[in-house]
Design goal:
The protein contains four helices and six strands. Helix 1 packs antiparallel against helix 2 and helix 1 runs parallel beside helix 4. The two termini are 24 Å apart. 35% of the residues are buried. Bound molecules: methionine sulfoxide.
Length: 174
């Protein structure tokens, strides 16, 4: 399926109503699952997830992964969007909080989050999902939007389950 996935064309950075976003994500995920079937390399999986979620989530200006390197540091991984910070310590920002606590961080207004790292000054809201495999924090999926409150609790729940399903199994090679 080198042609990618089939979704209604939507202008980049448009914030659709929440119900439309959930429908679009629900239409995209089975197609992304089919594209990834049989792949076990974590970078191949992360790169393709970043590419296809970028299409599925038009409200984003950054969509991709930070990988755990060392005890308490993240380094940028496969992504789409404006240039991201190269390294993030676990002690810093929304990504650091997700990595440190291994919990989903849904931040409707990044300016209200103490220690938020501003890689792109236009970012207004953020969703970060921890990637845990065999009891280890391996990466985080980071989604940023130039809109306030661009990620709902339902989207967070759907994406968390998807990340666990694809990157959680012991057969994935990090
Ligand atoms: N805003 C993030 C940093 C990563 S980038 O925006 C791509 C944070 O506070 O963790």
């Amino acid at each position: 399926m080198a042609e990618g996935i089939l979704l209604e064309p939507v202008a980049r950075e448009m914030l659709l109503p929440e119900a439309s976003r959930v429908l679009r994500l629900s239409a995209a995920l089975p197609q992304i699952r089919a594209v990834l079937a049989g792949e076990t390399d974590a970078v191949a999986l992360q790169a393709t997830i970043a590419c296809l979620l970028w299409e599925a989530l038009p409200q984003t200006n950054w969509c991709g992964f930070y990988r755990r390197v060392g005890e308490s540091q993240l380094a940028v991984g496969p992504y789409q969007g404006t240039m991201g910070c190269l390294r993030i310590d676990f002690a810093r920002g929304v990504c650091g909080a997700a990595a440190r606590t291994r919990t989903v961080q849904r931040v409707p207004d990044v300016h209200a989050f103490p220690g938020h790292i501003s890689c792109d000054a236009r970012s207004r809201s953020e969703l970060v999902i921890p990637v845990v495999n065999q009891g280890e924090l391996r990466a985080v999926l980071d989604l940023d939007s130039p809109h306030l409150d661009a990620f709902s609790a339902r989207e967070a729940e759907i994406l968390h389950a998807f990340v666990d399903e694809i990157l959680g199994p012991p057969g994935v090679v990090f």
